[in-house]
Specification:
This protein has 225 residues and is mainly beta. The chain has two helices and 18 strands. The protein has a single domain, classed as Jelly Rolls (Sandwich), CATH 2.60.120. The protein is 5% helix and 42% strand. It is globular and about 40 Å long.
Length: 225
């Protein structure tokens, strides 16, 4: 297992910032989102404002042939044709590098779970089934250099073959992204993790461990289990 670059468990439960549970110090600043006691495990972050920044942090630039992104997410609204952003990296001009959407009406297949990842400079989508409002899902997207994989609740649900490398920008968003991207919200999010590694073999382990329960470090994770 490789420790994440950044992890947010929202354990503080209140305040205007979110601590980075990876231990790497990438604190996120909350704009229009707010803590909620009704996270997946303890507190979470929720946002119902339209096309607004939820929480924002500066993270390392991920590059190379592997990366992964995952979180628990509960859709609060799924209006047909809407776009609801859970977490990910978005460029300053609004282009997605890697992200999880409970649905995205403006790119690819509308009205279903969608993850986007930029491989070789081109944005690719990988989709799952339509989600249900008010239900928690663990969503993970991984890339091993040749395949993009989508996991829902620990189960592999889709694979898209694409060989290439990634080059991500450095602004990470949770529960709503920059307004120029016009990315809607209406989500509650918990246990967000972002990696410069292929974590497809470890999705279930990460899914079952709250980000703020133990240090997001492989040795302590193994000790915990």
């Amino acid at each position: 297992m490789v420790a994440p670059l950044v992890a947010y468990g929202f354990g503080a439960g209140s305040g205007s910032t979110v601590a980075d549970d990876s231990g790497n110090g990438h604190t996120a600043t909350i704009t229009s989102a707010s803590y909620t006691a009704s996270g997946h495990t303890g507190s979470g972050l929720t946002n119902t404002a339209s096309s607004s920044v939820g929480a924002q942090a500066t993270v390392p630039a991920v590059s190379g042939s592997t990366c992964s992104l995952m979180c628990w997410v509960k859709p609060l609204s799924l209006t047909a044709g809407g776009t609801n952003f859970a977490c990910g990296v978005v460029q300053s001009g609004g282009s997605t590098d890697i992200a999880i959407f409970t649905q995205r009406g403006s790119f690819g297949t509308a009205n279903v779970l969608q993850c986007d990842i930029r491989v070789g400079g081109g944005l690719l989508q990988i989709t799952g089934s339509a989600l249900t409002v008010g239900t928690w899902y663990h969503v993970a997207v991984t890339f091993d250099g040749t395949n993009i994989k989508l996991y829902v609740n620990g189960t592999l649900t889709n694979t898209v073959a694409n060989t290439g490398t990634v080059s991500m920008s450095t602004t990470f968003y949770v529960a709503g992204a920059n307004a120029s991207a016009a990315l809607g919200t209406n989500v509650t999010v918990d246990d967000v993790r972002y990696f410069n590694s292929d974590e497809s073999a470890n999705v279930t382990t990460w899914m079952n461990t709250p980000a703020d329960a133990v240090s997001d470090d492989p040795s302590s994770m193994l000790a915990f289990f």
